[in-house]
Description:
The strands form 5 sheets. This protein has a two-stranded antiparallel ribbon with strand order 1-2. Strands 3-8 form a two-stranded parallel ribbon. The chain has a two-stranded antiparallel ribbon with strand order 4-5. Among the domains are: about 50-250 and about 335-380, no CATH class; about 255-330, no CATH class. The protein has helices spanning about 50-70, 100-120, 135-170, 175-180, 220-225, 230-250, 335-355, 360-380, and strands spanning about 20, 25, 40, 190-195, 210, 280-285, 305, 420-425, 450-455, 460-465. Helix 6 (about 230-250) packs parallel to helix 8 and helix 7 (about 335-355) packs antiparallel against helix 8. The protein has 8 helices and 10 strands. A hairpin with a 2-residue loop joins strand 1 (about 20) and strand 2 (about 25). The protein is mostly helical and about 475 residues long.
Amino acid sequence: xxxxxxRPLIHARSFSPAPTTFGARNYNNMxxxxxxxxxxxxxxxLSWVVTASYxxxxxxxxxxxxxxxxxxxxxxxxRPFSLDDRNIAFPxxxxxxxxxxxxxxxxxxxxxxxxAVICLILVPGATxxxxxPKSLIWKRKLWELHTGLLGLALSIVAAWFITNGMKNLxxxxxxxxxxxxxxxxxxxxxxxxxxxxxLATATTAGQLVSPNICKNPDxxxxxxxxxxxxxxxxSSSAAGLIYFxxxxxxxxxxxxxxxxxxxxxxxxxxxxxxxxxxxxxxxISGPDSYELPDRNPGAPSPSTLDAALGNKGIxxxxxxxxxxxxxxxxxxxxxLCVAVIPxxxxxxxxxxxxxxxxxxxxxxxxxxxxxxxxxxxxxxxxHLPISSGAGWAWGPRSHDKAFWxxxxxxxxxxxxxxxxxxxGDEEEGLPRAxxxxxxxxxxxxxxxxxxxxxxxxxxxxxxEYAGDSRI
Length: 471
């Protein structure tokens, strides 16, 4: 039996498919490559296990949404109150500025429809190389749509569940509670439960009465009068619309200009299908060339611009010299206006609860905070950072970690097996690529004949590796 311990250990993070030879076997097709006792498995489509794991995600969200609905129907705790408290003496507003049905349309249905339009029309964008199969393009569209909607659902359901649970737990009176209550004033003394009981009347400052004093026959209206904290309209509108604002900012590349850190990925890594992209070399000329990287003909790298970002020294930040001001630019203002429209709509919805006398100020602010937190979390849970992700969602989970990763696993996108490489999308693996990964200082575009070199094997031993000479 061959000893696997002397095989070169190539980690999943640094390995990309390449014309690699181990011994006398040439692996231009990466379907069966054995590395460090593992296997390289190319996946052209999601396995049923991965698909089932995402279906289960939807099932979990639906279950929590149902629990949140039930929490909104059960009788909440009811905090004692004072009949002369001006903070709960506001009139009951019959016609709300933003009723529940309108909140559902603006905060849920509209984002769903617009996310679908953006993903199906604008994704994957202009960076798709000529000749890319339509099936691959549609796979990307549907994946971006799925993650966009899954993130929206996570944000809204989390805010819904947390808010309804807190409403029942705290039982805080609404500003219009006395208008809902219809107190039994004839038997007032029977309901005094705190304060200065020696006073002649319960309407003096310091007297508290039991919620049982309320005799309104409409139980739903009365129970809802004790659900002021936190505001459900505020949390739901923030969860749906702030998430949608982040989604728009991501897809339309609306971000504050930033300087790429050292070691930042090559610009081609942010295109729709990186390994299918072949960026042309363009000679730099004109007055702008004095601020772009590498004007010196004797420098290590050529003075070229790629079609997407001009290769402004991002992947070779430490090897070339580039004017700082040319590293980034501000997006157009009209795009910024488009991105903040949902955010402003959420503020309007939250504010309407104040002038409709449905919530106290702190209730509105805290509810909005809940929705903001769930929106940001849900967006980052499924999408790359806006400032450095080029508008893409994270890829699917691996087959091995569809439901569970365990201790010692740094990513759900990699397989459990030691030394394996998983391709979650077809564009991740061309027949030839740099084993050190795209954007590496050792990467290049020239093909080299295989050569034998010593590399560190397991336990620090040197082993012979017959492969690409760029290693």
